[in-house]
Amino acid sequence: MKQIKAIYPGSFDPLTNGHLDLIERGSKIFHELVVAILRNSEKEPLFDVAERREMLIAATRRWPNVKIDTFSGLLVDYVVDQKANAVLRGIRAISDYEYELQMALMNRKLNASVETIFMMPAEAYSYLSSRLVKEVFRLGGSVRQLVPPEVEERLYNKFRAATSAAGDGRL
Ligand code: PNS
């Protein structure tokens, strides 16, 4: 059977246990899985790309066939540069489907040889997103079961830095 190298692209701002669940599932199916952080996002990130990369490296060390990289520009161009065969994306709920379908079909239009493969994270993570993790943390909620320990620690460090800079405890 053909050995498949897949790219799992995303913002990962920050990495959540839902992302990790998908990475673990992907690592079991693909010969090689490259988690690729988008560098040129228009969004204002909480963590810069170097920080997100460090957190991903620490959290995925246990899977030898998982690599961490960054990319900018078109995803399909990066997939070709990497000599990869597929893009991995997670679908948590029906609400993800429309956006994911749009992206997958746009990528197919741009390069018909790039296949998108969807996997579902564990049900326990179906409500989890980086955006909500940031919101819960900012408002003082616990994110202990939502993100890996290295991410939780970095969130605390950011919070502490913001507290001493702004004096109001907000990020
Ligand atoms: O974690 P996200 O923010 O849902 O990831 C979105 C991502 C990085 C997969 C998407 O924005 C992307 O692939 N961007 C690269 C630019 C691109 O190729 N755009 C055209 C295809 S939709």
Describe the structure.
The chain is an alpha/beta fold and 171 residues long. The protein has six helices and five strands, in the order E-H-E-H-E-H-E-H-E-H-H. The chain has a single domain, classed as HUPs (Rossmann fold, 3-Layer(aba) Sandwich). The protein is globular and about 55 Å long. The chain binds 4'-phosphopantetheine (PNS). The site of 4'-phosphopantetheine has 9 residues, from strand 1 and helix 4.
Number of domains: 1
CATH architecture: 3-Layer(aba) Sandwich
Helical residues, percent: 40-55%
Largest sheet: 5 strands, parallel
State Rg.
16 Å
CATH-defined superfamily: HUPs
Oligomeric organization of the protein chains = single chain
Shape assignment: globular
In total, how many beta strands?
5
Order of helices and strands: EHEHEHEHEHH
Secondary structure tally, helices: 6
Write the layout of secondary structure elements.
Blueprint: E1 5-10, H1 17-29, E2 32-38, H2 49-60, E3 66-71, H3 75-81, E4 86-90, H4 94-110, E5 115-119, H5 130-138, H6 149-166
Parallel strand pairs: 1-2, 1-4, 2-3, 4-5
This protein binds 4'-phosphopantetheine.
